[in-house]
Amino acid sequence: MNQRPPRLSPTRLAAGLVLPLAAYLAIRAVIGSSTGALAITEAVPATWLLIGAIVGRRVDPIAVVSVLTVAIALAAYALTGGDPLALKLRRGAVTGTVGIAALASVALGRPLLVLVAEHVGKLDPQRRPEIEARLADPARRRALRILTAIIGLSFALDGASQIALALTVPTRLFVADSTAARILVLGTGVVATASYFKHQRRERDRSRPT
């Protein structure tokens, strides 16, 4: 069984950012409420992820985090009498937390990507020798550390920008503005990651014997 996660292509990433905006605009036009449209837009993807995890009979960390954060945000929304701030803060809280955790793991000398690779090796005995051999290479561990730092910085900046917009931008403008900011920040992160992969590939080509 192939347990590798699906590749997050730029097209898939763009769709994941733009489609929620399109859904929000369509729902807002139908129900006439920016706050209600934001609540529905946040709840539907989380519900879809939960259904997929239940049907597939597997624990999906992304689905768990998404459902929990949406549930907390919706509960806060209901308890505050319809204040959309919790819904708006949810986006930045998730990516910001992941980004800080990634940067902290680099600072502590245990990069998250190294931990993920080790975990994958434990789950897949057939690939475990290959993964352990790669992790034993100092150059590969350094590359994983740098990639963790790039991803962590991108997510931390995304979280900070989303929280800043949540606190300053009206709800009717928040989804469009936050989507634009997210495309800029995460797009820059994707470009930086791709550039580093190309750099690594060139380094490996130079080190091969001719």
What would you note in describing this structure?
Helices cover 83% and strands 0% of the residues. It is mainly α. It is elongated and about 65 Å long. Residues 1-6 have low confidence and may be disordered.
Task: Show the helix and strand layout.
Blueprint: H1 10-31, H2 34-56, H3 61-79, H4 85-107, H5 112-123, H6 128-135, H7 138-168, H8 171-207
Helix pairs in contact: 1-2, 1-8, 2-3, 3-4, 4-7, 5-6, 7-8
Write down the Rg. Answer: 20 Å
Q: What is the distance, rounded to the nearest whole angstrom, between the alpha carbons of the first and last residues?
A: 37 Å
Structural class: mainly alpha
**Which runs of at least 5 residues are low in confidence (pLDDT < 50)?**
1-6
Largest sheet composition: none
Please estimate the helix content.
over 70%
Query: How much beta, percentage-wise?
Result: under 5%
What is the molecular shape? elongated
Question: How many β-strands, per DSSP?
Answer: 0
Summarize model confidence as the mean pLDDT. 83
Q: Helix count, per DSSP?
A: 8
